[in-house]
Amino acid sequence: MVRKRGENGVIILTALFFAVFVILIFRYYSIAWQQKYVSTAQLEHTFTIEVGRTQGTIYDRDLRPVINAETEFRAVAVPSLLDCEKTAEYALDRDSFYKEFDKGKPFVFECSDKALESDGLTIFEVPVRYSEEQRAQHIVGYLSEERGADGIEYAYDSILRNNFPVNSVSYDTDGFGRILKGSRKEVIRTKSYKSGVVLTIDNDIQDICEKCGSGIETGAIVCADIRNGDILAMASFPDYDPENIEEALKDEMSPLINRALYSYSVGSVFKLVTAAAALEQGAGGHMYDCCGNIDVEGRVFNCHKLDGHGLQDMPQAMTNSCNTYFIDLARCLDIKEYRRMAAYIGFGKEVHLCSGIIGSGGVLPSEKELSVPAELANFSFGQGKVTATPLQITQLTCAVANKGKMPILRLIKGLTPDGEKPVVEKSPLISEVMSEKTAEKICGMMVLAVSENKNSKAKSRLVSIGAKTSTAQTGHYSDNGEELCHAWITGFFPENDPKYAVTVLIENGGYGNDAAAPVFREIAEKITVLGKKRDNSEKTERI
Fold first, then answer.
1. Average pLDDT of the segment spanning 20-47
2. Which tens digits make up the pLDDT trace of 98-157?
3. DSSP letters of 298-350?
4. I want to staple 193 with a disulfide (CB 3.0 to 4.6 A). Which of 54, 298, 448, 487 is the partner?
5. pTM over cut 0.90
6. Which of 65, 41, 45 lies closest to 55, judged by CA?
7. Residue range 32-38: average pLDDT?
8. The CATH number of domain 203-542, selected from 3.40.710.10, 3.40.50.2300, 3.90.1010.10, 3.40.50.720
9. What's the alpha-carbon Rg for the chain, to the nearest Å?
10. Angle ∠(58,61,63) on CA atoms, nearest 5
């Protein structure tokens, strides 16, 4: 079929018009797309940068921070709005600062407290979780993967790491993410970290106990308010670095162990319990002639004074720490009531301070075990199977110094939403474990044990003290064949108006009077000085 020339022209013309139409349509959409892109770029967006996640604070009894006690300064820098060299003067690590600045994007750097805010520089004061010389580390605990792993950090993890607002600064940006010059910036400075847990400890007393015990290789110190059982200080030795737990785990001294919660052979401090049981059972007038040893159904027990103490009453025997006197005294007691007295005072019972911080119950022999004469003899002066924690021994001293009314030791005072006042405050629990008359007599014996003993290293010219030392046999021996003994002392002060109960334990420390008593005396003296300073400060404020 042959096409006419006119038809061919129409076809060509139609194709031309179609091509032009396609080009015009493409051009229209291209221009529209570009206009849309330009409009989008001109639209404002927001860029936010966060500065340090905050965590709740652990406070002492007076709402002084135990952690978050120190702060550091961090700045958010916007390179496009700053002079590099001038701003670098504020940076603590200038090399790192220059590297981040050259990237051109907003960044956070640690700065000095001299840094000044501007449109491109926003300064935040951020709490530091742990101080270089962190106080009360065994109470505070530590973190693992930003969660509480031990101590208060573990027990109150959900409270200390709640969904808190964070420090942040927001800027207006264009569609390319560029911060717009002269635009507003929105700054949020959170105070949520001020919420947290309030402990019963006293920062100053905790510091005193840690410093006085700094020479202890392994051991513990507990200080409590005898009236309500508030733990004012609880220190364990050795300490550890919460930022280097791996190193602590490898340390053969096991610094992660809170030794205030562990039970040990107690030795002569248990004579206080034997004396209390005897007084309650009407055997307070017991006399015994110590010749240096005593035969208990064929087994001979020696006194530490091999030639004997001679005829003694109970106060003299307590001052002399005569083992044979208390062995003979125990044979006069009703075993059931004797053991019950020990149980009332807290032997054999765990001390629950909070979740994860629980003092061992130790070992309190059964009535059946104590029916064996040799076992009863050991029990009477704190040897054999009986064991206890520094917490339990401190609780015993509180009962004696508080006229027979024993407060259950506590570590948690309450919670606080703002660091201003405690809420959900726990009330002290107090039970009468011995008569006031019995308690007063034992107090007198403890005072005599220091004042009438010319060799006592607990004796102080600054404050009158009542105390009992102990050298507890462990059944373990050193390489040279000498038996290892735990050194103990527990006591109260001041004598006339007792306020504080303190217990010092030094593992394998030897004689209580040589190793533990000097530490106790130093603590008592420094707390006494502290009390006088506080009294003077209060008087000055009133004036």
1. 49
2. 999 999 999 999 999 999 999 899 999 999 999 988 999 999 999 998 899 999 999 999
3. TEEEE-SSTT--EEE-HHHHHHHT-HHHHHHHHTTS-HHHHHHHHHHHTTTS-
4. 54
5. no
6. 65
7. 41
8. 3.40.710.10
9. 36
10. 60
Q: State how far the Cα of 344 lies from the Cα of 100, in Å rounded to an integer.
A: 65
- The domains spanning 47-199 and 203-542 adopt the same CATH topology: no
Rounded Cα gap, residues 393 and 439, in angstroms = 15
What pLDDT was estimated at residue 1?
45
Q: How far is Cα 15 from Cα 10, in angstroms, rounded to an integer?
A: 9
CATH code for the part of the protein at 47-199 = 3.90.1310
Amino acid, res. 301: F
Question: CA-to-CA distance for 458 and 489, rounded, in angstroms?
Answer: 9
Task: Decide if 267 contacts 507 (C-beta within 8 A).
Answer: no
314 burial type by CB count under 10 A (0-12 exposed, 13-18 middle, 19+ buried): buried
Cα separation, 286 vs 172, in Å, equals: 88
Query: Which is nearest to 278 in space by CA: 317, 227, 230, 225?
Result: 317
Structure tokens at 236: 């364990």
Structure tokens at 193: 């970290």
Tell me the domain boundaries of the chain: 47-199, 203-542
Does the pLDDT of residue 174 top 80, yes or no? no
Measured between alpha carbons, how far is 206 from 136 in angstroms, rounded to an integer? Answer: 7
SS3 518: helix
Q: In this predicted model, which residue has the larger pLDDT, 162 or 49?
A: 49
Q: Both tokens of residue 2? A: 């042959």
H/E stretch holding 412: strand 412-416
pLDDT digit string, tens, across residues 227-260: 999 999 999 999 999 999 999 999 999 999 999 9
Q: Are 363 and 339 in contact (CB under 8 A)?
A: no
> Could you tell me the two tokens for 177?
């993410």
| Percent share of the chain, pLDDT over 90 | 79
CA angle 111, 117, 122 (to 5 degrees): 70
User: Which pLDDT score, from 0 to 100, does residue 7 have?
Assistant: 56
Please calculate the CA angle 292-521-261 and round it to the nearest 5 degrees: 85
User: Is the N-terminal amide bond of 498 cis, ω within 30° of 0?
Assistant: no
Among residues 463, 472, 233, which one has the least CA distance to residue 362?
Answer: 472
HEC string of 104-172? CCCEEEEECCCCCCECCEEEEEEEECCCCCCCCHHHHCCEECCEECCHHHHHCHHHHCCCCCCCEEEEE
Phi, psi of 399 (to 5 degrees): -60, -45
What's the first-to-final CA gap in the chain, in angstroms? 126
Q: Within 13 A of 126's CA, how many CA atoms are on the CB side?
A: 26
Amino acid found at 199: L
Structure token pair of residue 95? 């090399």
Query: How far is residue 418's CA from residue 333's CA, in Å, rounded to a whole number?
Result: 55
- As a three-state string, the secondary structure of 5-47 is HHHHHHHHHHHHHHHHHHHHHHHHHHHHHHHHHHHHHHCCEEE
* Cα→Cα distances 87→102, 109, 144, Å: 13, 11, 35
